[in-house]
Amino acid sequence: MADDKKSQQIEWSSRFAFILAATGSAVGLGNIWKFPYVTGENGGGAFVLVYLLCVLLIGVPLMMAEIMLGRRSKENPIHTMEILTEEAGADLNWHYLGWMGVAAGFLILSYYSVIAGWSTAYVVKAFFGSFSGANASEVKAIFDNFVASPMQLIFWHSVFMLATMVIVARGLEKGFEQSVRLLMPGLFALMFLLVGYAMTTDGYFKGLDFLFKPDFTKLTANSVLVAMGQAFFSLSLGMGAIMVYGAYLPKNVSIAKSAVIIAGADTVVALLAGLAIFPIVFSNGLHPNSGPGLVFETLPIAFGNMFGGWLFGVLFFIALVFAALTSSISLVEPAVAWLIENKGLTRTKACVYSGLVAWLLGFGTVFSFNAWKNVKLFERTFFELVDYLTANLMLPVGGFCIAVFAGWIMHQEHSKEELDLPGEHLSYAVWKFLVKFIAPAAVFLVFLNVVGVL
């Protein structure tokens, strides 16, 4: 493929801009909301150790592969797989991988915006002291009353979706780059502030032990699979976002170094979230294995009853909104890029059409928590069904196929050319082994686990 092939979109202005944007894509609710509670449910330190190994051995090689595919084609994920399938002389059905990634990201955005809307609403609730002095039952009542109101959920879903589309409509430099240059440093600053506060609490060292002192008796086979799944999903792999960001990456930027930095930054945010949350949990006599309600039903109890809780409650939920926003803009970009490149739409029109459809689809998630909560298909509400379809089926299949295509289908000289790894044969051989054998096997095990085979 010609080195001078250009995407219809402009390129990132620098490697730093790409790293910030891709890190923002990876860092989201999965790091600050999901990582602490799955760590709590799976015993702490031993789970974290397995998670870190999975990021290194599975996440980084897969991220390198996805960036590589995007940069080689310089197109949106759908066109990427069409071009690279033809280049490799492979079965034309491989191009459906691009469609699946775009569809997965779009579906995830539809409910992600609703949940991110909760975080936005909780910034306001925390600011006006809704949790001040509240006990467990009062905090639960606040949450239950909130999600029981379709109009409230629609309002905050609309606010968040509008913010996402305004950023995406402004384009690569004025939208993505300017936003992540503000949001990502802001997110890290907020997380360090929260960790600084956690260090002053009575439960800090207990939280530190829980997070970093491995107790392998608490580690089960299922915990290992959960760690693999969390590492995979927290890096935004398999949904087209990293692939389309790779399409905007200049040729002279090292894919390997960028992937390591992105995965490292993503992991740091997850660990910072644990360091901020668990000391607060232990200091207030709460339980680390509180599940998905840890952020919205457990932490507000602590924020409402601890010294400085008002300020740090507001800061925590602002950090959650920042993380969600940097991810949401990457979820819709593959669909927007396809509309621009395939239908000839302006970026603004592509954003309006994409945003409107995702916003309307999000109503299904809104009503899943109130009016439609008893309406179930395959024993799942609309939200549970879309979440299961994307996170548990489409993303693992997408990740598996990316690994197989990059490792087995793509010509070796092409992957070598794009990766341009230092150390010539050794470093490339290590990547090739991981992406051909380790990553597909691990993702396949995750897939078997989520569908109930294991």
Please describe what this structure looks like:
The chain is mainly alpha-helical and 454 residues long. The protein has helices spanning 15-26, 29-41, 45-73, 77-88, 96-127, 136-147, 150-169, 171-198, 204-212, 221-234, 241-247, 255-283, 299-305, 309-343, 347-368, 382-409, 412-419, 425-450. The chain has a single domain, classed as Amino acid/polyamine transporter I. Mean pLDDT is 90; it is low at 1-7. It is globular, with a radius of gyration of 21 Å. Helix 3 packs across helix 4 (77-88), helix 3 packs across helix 11 (241-247) and helix 3 (45-73) packs across helix 16 (382-409).
State the separation between the terminal residues, measured CA to CA: 42 Å
Low-confidence stretches: 1-7
Query: How helix-rich are the residues, as a percent range?
Result: over 70%
CATH class wording: Mainly Alpha
Indicate the CATH topology: Amino acid/polyamine transporter I
- Write the CATH architecture name: Up-down Bundle
Roughly what is the average pLDDT, rounded to an integer?
A: 90
Largest sheet entry: none
Shape: globular
Count of discrete alpha- or pi-helical segments spanning 4 or more residues: 18
Number of strands: 0
Approximately how much beta-strand content do the residues carry?
Answer: under 5%
Determine Rg (CA atoms, Å): 21 Å
Order of helices and strands: HHHHHHHHHHHHHHHHHH
